[in-house]
Amino acid sequence: MKRAARPSTLKSLASACLVLLCCAEMASAHAWSLTINAASRRVYLHVGNGTFEGNNGTINLVQVAVPFNLVGNGAAQAMTSNSTQNISLQGDGYNTCPTPTSQVMIGASYRRSNGGNGPASATLSVTSPANLVNAAGDTIPFSQISWTVSAPGSSVPNVIPAGTFNGGTQTLATVPANRYIENCHTYSYANSSVVAAGTYNGRVTYTLSSP
Questions:
Q1: Within a 10 A sphere around the Cβ of 178, how many other Cβ atoms?
Q2: Residue 8 falls inside a structural domain
Q3: Which pTM value belongs to this model?
Q4: Using the 8-state DSSP alphabet, how is residue 143 labeled?
Protein backbone atom coordinates (compact mmCIF):
# COMPACT_ATOMS: atom_id res chain seq x y z
CA MET A 1 0.00 0.00 0.00
CA LYS A 2 1.37 3.38 -0.86
CA ARG A 3 0.89 6.56 1.03
CA ALA A 4 1.41 9.90 -0.39
CA ALA A 5 1.83 13.17 1.38
CA ARG A 6 1.40 16.46 -0.33
CA PRO A 7 0.65 19.17 2.28
CA SER A 8 -0.75 22.49 1.01
CA THR A 9 -1.58 25.93 2.30
CA LEU A 10 -4.22 26.92 -0.25
CA LYS A 11 -6.72 29.38 1.12
CA SER A 12 -9.76 27.13 1.11
CA LEU A 13 -8.71 23.65 -0.02
CA ALA A 14 -5.81 21.31 0.71
CA SER A 15 -5.30 17.77 -0.56
CA ALA A 16 -2.86 14.97 0.14
CA CYS A 17 -2.72 11.53 -1.42
CA LEU A 18 -2.28 8.07 -0.01
CA VAL A 19 -1.32 5.34 -2.47
CA LEU A 20 -2.03 1.79 -1.36
CA LEU A 21 -0.14 -1.28 -2.49
CA CYS A 22 -0.87 -4.95 -1.77
CA CYS A 23 1.14 -7.96 -2.92
CA ALA A 24 -0.81 -11.20 -3.24
CA GLU A 25 2.28 -13.39 -3.46
CA MET A 26 3.18 -12.62 -0.84
CA ALA A 27 -8.64 -0.62 20.12
CA SER A 28 -8.69 2.35 22.12
CA ALA A 29 -7.79 5.38 20.00
CA HIS A 30 -6.53 8.82 20.89
CA ALA A 31 -5.49 11.97 19.05
CA TRP A 32 -4.40 15.56 19.58
CA SER A 33 -6.66 18.60 19.24
CA LEU A 34 -4.71 21.83 19.79
CA THR A 35 -5.72 25.48 19.81
CA ILE A 36 -3.71 27.63 17.35
CA ASN A 37 -3.45 31.39 16.94
CA ALA A 38 -6.00 33.21 14.83
CA ALA A 39 -4.67 34.45 11.49
CA SER A 40 -5.73 35.15 7.93
CA ARG A 41 -8.06 32.46 6.64
CA ARG A 42 -6.32 29.31 5.41
CA VAL A 43 -6.37 25.51 5.68
CA TYR A 44 -3.41 23.16 6.07
CA LEU A 45 -3.20 19.38 5.63
CA HIS A 46 -0.36 16.90 5.79
CA VAL A 47 -0.37 13.12 5.34
CA GLY A 48 2.93 11.46 6.25
CA ASN A 49 6.14 13.38 5.56
CA GLY A 50 5.24 17.05 5.48
CA THR A 51 6.42 20.63 5.83
CA PHE A 52 4.80 22.91 8.40
CA GLU A 53 2.27 25.08 6.55
CA GLY A 54 4.17 24.57 3.31
CA ASN A 55 3.94 22.54 0.11
CA ASN A 56 5.64 19.15 0.03
CA GLY A 57 5.50 16.72 -2.89
CA THR A 58 6.63 13.62 -0.96
CA ILE A 59 4.70 10.43 -1.76
CA ASN A 60 5.02 7.84 0.99
CA LEU A 61 4.38 4.13 0.46
CA VAL A 62 2.30 1.86 2.68
CA GLN A 63 2.45 -1.79 1.68
CA VAL A 64 2.07 -5.42 2.64
CA ALA A 65 3.41 -8.63 1.09
CA VAL A 66 1.16 -11.56 1.98
CA PRO A 67 2.99 -14.92 2.14
CA PHE A 68 1.70 -17.40 -0.42
CA ASN A 69 0.49 -19.85 2.22
CA LEU A 70 -1.57 -17.13 3.95
CA VAL A 71 -3.30 -15.56 0.95
CA GLY A 72 -7.04 -15.30 1.57
CA ASN A 73 -7.04 -17.05 4.95
CA GLY A 74 -8.87 -14.18 6.66
CA ALA A 75 -5.97 -13.24 8.94
CA ALA A 76 -5.57 -9.45 8.67
CA GLN A 77 -2.10 -8.35 7.58
CA ALA A 78 -0.41 -5.30 9.08
CA MET A 79 0.86 -2.82 6.51
CA THR A 80 4.16 -0.96 6.79
CA SER A 81 5.05 2.59 5.79
CA ASN A 82 8.14 4.33 4.42
CA SER A 83 7.14 7.51 6.23
CA THR A 84 9.77 9.01 8.52
CA GLN A 85 7.54 11.69 10.08
CA ASN A 86 7.27 10.95 13.77
CA ILE A 87 7.58 14.43 15.33
CA SER A 88 4.55 16.72 15.34
CA LEU A 89 4.76 19.58 12.86
CA GLN A 90 3.33 21.99 15.42
CA GLY A 91 6.82 22.91 16.62
CA ASP A 92 6.62 21.44 20.12
CA GLY A 93 8.86 18.49 19.27
CA TYR A 94 6.29 15.95 20.47
CA ASN A 95 6.82 12.36 19.32
CA THR A 96 3.30 11.73 18.02
CA CYS A 97 4.15 8.66 15.90
CA PRO A 98 6.85 6.65 17.72
CA THR A 99 7.02 4.00 14.98
CA PRO A 100 6.60 5.83 11.64
CA THR A 101 7.52 2.70 9.65
CA SER A 102 4.16 1.25 10.68
CA GLN A 103 2.23 4.51 11.06
CA VAL A 104 1.25 7.54 9.00
CA MET A 105 0.85 10.90 10.71
CA ILE A 106 -2.14 12.94 9.55
CA GLY A 107 -2.64 16.53 10.67
CA ALA A 108 -5.05 19.27 9.64
CA SER A 109 -5.68 22.84 10.70
CA TYR A 110 -8.08 25.65 9.88
CA ARG A 111 -7.31 29.26 10.72
CA ARG A 112 -9.41 32.39 10.50
CA SER A 113 -9.26 35.81 12.10
CA ASN A 114 -10.98 36.54 15.38
CA GLY A 115 -13.34 38.69 13.37
CA GLY A 116 -14.87 35.49 12.04
CA ASN A 117 -13.91 35.83 8.37
CA GLY A 118 -15.15 32.56 6.91
CA PRO A 119 -17.05 29.47 8.08
CA ALA A 120 -16.78 28.20 11.65
CA SER A 121 -15.06 24.97 10.57
CA ALA A 122 -13.38 23.00 7.80
CA THR A 123 -14.10 19.41 6.73
CA LEU A 124 -11.56 16.60 6.45
CA SER A 125 -12.55 13.83 4.02
CA VAL A 126 -10.93 10.91 2.22
CA THR A 127 -11.70 9.55 -1.25
CA SER A 128 -10.72 6.09 -2.48
CA PRO A 129 -11.36 4.30 -5.80
CA ALA A 130 -13.45 1.14 -5.88
CA ASN A 131 -10.46 -1.20 -6.22
CA LEU A 132 -6.74 -1.71 -6.06
CA VAL A 133 -5.62 -3.01 -9.46
CA ASN A 134 -2.62 -5.03 -10.69
CA ALA A 135 -0.95 -5.00 -14.13
CA ALA A 136 -3.18 -7.82 -15.37
CA GLY A 137 -6.35 -5.95 -14.43
CA ASP A 138 -7.17 -8.11 -11.41
CA THR A 139 -8.70 -6.19 -8.51
CA ILE A 140 -8.95 -6.07 -4.74
CA PRO A 141 -11.81 -4.01 -3.25
CA PHE A 142 -10.57 -0.96 -1.38
CA SER A 143 -12.86 -2.02 1.45
CA GLN A 144 -10.18 -4.63 2.26
CA ILE A 145 -8.06 -1.78 3.67
CA SER A 146 -8.80 -0.29 7.10
CA TRP A 147 -6.96 1.81 9.65
CA THR A 148 -6.71 2.32 13.40
CA VAL A 149 -5.55 5.55 15.06
CA SER A 150 -3.41 6.53 18.02
CA ALA A 151 -1.45 9.41 19.59
CA PRO A 152 0.50 8.54 22.75
CA GLY A 153 -0.34 10.64 25.78
CA SER A 154 -3.49 12.23 24.41
CA SER A 155 -6.80 11.98 26.22
CA VAL A 156 -8.88 13.20 23.27
CA PRO A 157 -10.45 10.16 21.55
CA ASN A 158 -10.87 9.75 17.81
CA VAL A 159 -10.31 13.31 16.62
CA ILE A 160 -9.61 11.69 13.25
CA PRO A 161 -11.40 8.35 13.65
CA ALA A 162 -10.49 4.81 12.68
CA GLY A 163 -12.34 3.35 9.71
CA THR A 164 -12.40 1.34 6.49
CA PHE A 165 -12.13 2.70 2.95
CA ASN A 166 -15.41 2.37 1.05
CA GLY A 167 -14.50 3.08 -2.57
CA GLY A 168 -15.98 6.57 -2.38
CA THR A 169 -15.75 9.78 -0.38
CA GLN A 170 -15.97 9.61 3.42
CA THR A 171 -16.16 12.53 5.84
CA LEU A 172 -13.63 11.94 8.61
CA ALA A 173 -13.67 14.98 10.86
CA THR A 174 -14.72 18.57 11.38
CA VAL A 175 -11.90 20.98 12.18
CA PRO A 176 -13.10 24.01 14.19
CA ALA A 177 -11.67 27.46 13.47
CA ASN A 178 -8.19 28.00 14.94
CA ARG A 179 -7.70 24.36 15.76
CA TYR A 180 -5.13 21.76 14.69
CA ILE A 181 -5.93 18.03 14.89
CA GLU A 182 -3.43 15.21 14.52
CA ASN A 183 -2.97 11.49 15.05
CA CYS A 184 -1.28 8.42 13.60
CA HIS A 185 -2.96 5.94 11.28
CA THR A 186 -1.96 2.28 11.13
CA TYR A 187 -3.23 0.43 8.05
CA SER A 188 -4.30 -3.18 7.69
CA TYR A 189 -5.25 -5.48 4.80
CA ALA A 190 -8.21 -7.78 5.60
CA ASN A 191 -6.91 -10.65 3.42
CA SER A 192 -10.37 -12.18 3.30
CA SER A 193 -10.33 -13.62 -0.23
CA VAL A 194 -7.93 -15.46 -2.54
CA VAL A 195 -6.65 -13.18 -5.31
CA ALA A 196 -4.30 -13.62 -8.26
CA ALA A 197 -0.59 -13.04 -7.63
CA GLY A 198 0.67 -9.57 -8.41
CA THR A 199 1.20 -6.06 -7.10
CA TYR A 200 -2.02 -4.15 -6.57
CA ASN A 201 -1.96 -0.36 -6.47
CA GLY A 202 -4.46 2.32 -5.57
CA ARG A 203 -4.37 5.95 -4.50
CA VAL A 204 -6.39 7.59 -1.75
CA THR A 205 -6.82 11.37 -1.52
CA TYR A 206 -7.35 13.19 1.74
CA THR A 207 -8.92 16.65 1.40
CA LEU A 208 -9.42 19.48 3.87
CA SER A 209 -11.91 22.05 2.62
CA SER A 210 -13.65 25.18 3.76
CA PRO A 211 -16.30 26.78 1.54
A1: 17
A2: no
A3: 0.83
A4: G
